[in-house]
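To: structure desk
From: M.T.
Subject: fold request, one chain
Message: Could you run this one when you get a chance? Sequence is below, nothing fancy, just the single chain.
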Amino acid sequence: MNILVCVKQVPGSNNVEVDPVTGVLKRSGIPSKINPYDLYGIEAALSLAERFGGTVDTITMGPPQAKAVIQETVCMGVRGGTVLTDRKFAGADVLATAYTLSQGIQKCGAYDLIICGKQTTDGDTAQVGAEVAEYLNIPNVSNVLSIDDYRDGKFLLTVSLDDRIITMSIAPPCLISVDADINTPRLPSYKIRKSLQDSSVGFLTFADFDDQDLDHYGLSGSATQVERIFPPEKVSAKKTIEGDSDVQAQALYTLLRDKKML
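Reply: Done. Structure tokens follow.
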């Protein structure tokens, strides 16, 4: 069984600034980490490989320094991974990101199962997994709570829907997106980290892809454009209303009315 987990490097701090000109996050100088939801996908993949045999690889899209998250997954027990990196990929929305990932996955080999985290903490769209599956023309299931078994050539899953929990099966090759309820991720191995080799990480660029149409990548391949993005304004001013509950209620009502919030 060959398993691939899609991972992403995200800001490791909530104190992130936005470039007022480009409207993108200022990532320079900000500590990074693996997207938390991807850790559950890695654990699910490693557990499957331990139960039924197989290999686990990871893939990410980002700048060259994104190799750090691939190395982190290796420390958790993953065999190795690939970074898709090229300036032509910059500015991609979820559609262009999913297409780029699908192109990279096809260059990396054939996989029985692709696992994605539910969403990323810097984008929160929860769309990339399903879109990657569409580009690869394979079935996908979201909100997977547990991978119960692999029997008769199919994965048996417990899945959360809006109003119920169901069990279902899906045949490989396929893609699933997992939520935080699926497991508890293992910690990286210090011993592996000390012996880590750069050979565990490979790189692919635009030149390596079969599709050489620039209109499918980055800003050109994005169906959506962010017109403006800005951090919420921090207001430290406060007003204390003295008096009994009737006086406070009337004062609060007047304040909200004057601010046209009622």
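Reply (cont.): The radius of gyration is 22 Å. Let me know if you need anything else for the meeting.
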